[in-house]
Amino acid sequence: MPDPGSVEKVTITNLTTNESVTCPFNPKELTISKSVSWHTDDQAQKDVSHWSFGGGNPAKLPLDLVFDTTSTGDDVRKKYNNFLLGLLAIDTTKKDDQGNLLNEPVDCRVAWGKFMSFLAVAESVDLTFTYFLSDGTPVRAKARATFRQKKDEQDFATQNPTTRTEARKIWVVCEGETLDWIAYREYGNSAHWRHIAAANDLADPKDLRAGQVLRLVPLPTAHSGVG
User: Fold this and answer.
1) pLDDT-based confidence at 172, cuts 50/70/90?
2) Hey, which CATH number is domain 165-227, 3.10.350.10, 1.10.3720.10, 2.60.40.1080, 3.40.190.10?
3) Which of 104, 99, 101, 75 is nearest to 88 (CA)?
4) What integer pLDDT is reported at residue 51 of this predicted model?
5) Long-range contacts of 71-74 (CB under 8 A, 24+ apart)
6) What is the location of CATH 2.40.30 in the chain?
7) Rounded distance, CA 20 to CA 33, Å?
8) Which residues make up the CATH 3.10.350.10 domain(s) of the chain?
9) Taking a C-beta distance cutoff of 8 angstroms, is the pair 125, 88 a contact?
10) Rounded to two decimals, what is the model's pTM?
């Protein structure tokens, strides 16, 4: 059985203060969505319009996280939640030549091992406290934090993804899971295990370990159906 300490954890860093938080529990899955805008111009005596590129929209990264301090009894807000809320503040270090605040957001980086390094700004943080000590101290919380891309998407992946135009997901392998079972759950066909193996450069598809992070990218159009 692999050493749990070898499993990479999601880390969020405030690039203004250089403070960072390592999430005690990795998300079960993760989706990065990207969209672009297209403009159409009506053309006389033609049935279809002319399409022109209107620019890309920032990629969106929602993270569902769990924070727990029951082992120490510390207030979970002080250790984790206040850090996330601080990412929503205005960056007071960003000023113009006259010393006026630019009212720009705090830059942050969301990183997860070799899977990604996402330079972003925080768009929203929702906190749900789920466990309290007898004195009312919150010691467990669920958080949904949504981040928006700050740089071109080619800069946030530490490995080149198979596709940059569609949403892609990750799968965190649990003990006993196999590649064909994951393929069936994700694509509805266990035969697509080869697609997962190729996308993740797996030399031995049978050599999966608990905590391993797999990228799940869309199937090629010709193979999107079952069969």
Assistant:
1) confident
2) 3.10.350.10
3) 104
4) 78
5) 73/133, 73/137, 73/139, 74/139
6) 1-38+54-160
7) 24
8) 165-227
9) yes
10) 0.64
Between 171 and 122, the higher pLDDT residue: 122
Q: Cβ(51)–Cβ(40) under 8 Å?
A: yes
Q: Are 116 and 157 in contact (CB under 8 A)?
A: yes
Name the token pair of 55: 């620019």
What ranges make up the beta strands (E) of 24-114?
Answer: 29-32, 36-41, 50-56, 60-68, 108-112
| pLDDT > 90 fraction of the chain, expressed in percent and rounded | 37
Q: Which two tokens stand for residue 221?
A: 């159009």
Polymer length of the chain: 227
Considering only the top CATH level, what class is 1-38+54-160?
Answer: mainly beta
Q: Which residues pair with 37 in a beta bridge?
A: 55
Instruction: Please state, as a whole number, how many other Cβ atoms lie within 10 Å of the Cβ of residue 195.
Output: 21
What type of residue sits at position 75? D
SS3 128: strand
What are the pLDDT digits (tens) for 80-124? 999 999 999 999 988 888 888 899 999 999 988 877 888 899 999
Mean pLDDT (the chain, rounded): 82
Continuous segment of H or E residues that includes residue 129: strand 116-132
Cα angle 52, 56, 58 (rounded to 5 degrees) comes to 165
Higher pLDDT, 168 or 123: 123
Distance CA 213, CA 196 (A): 11
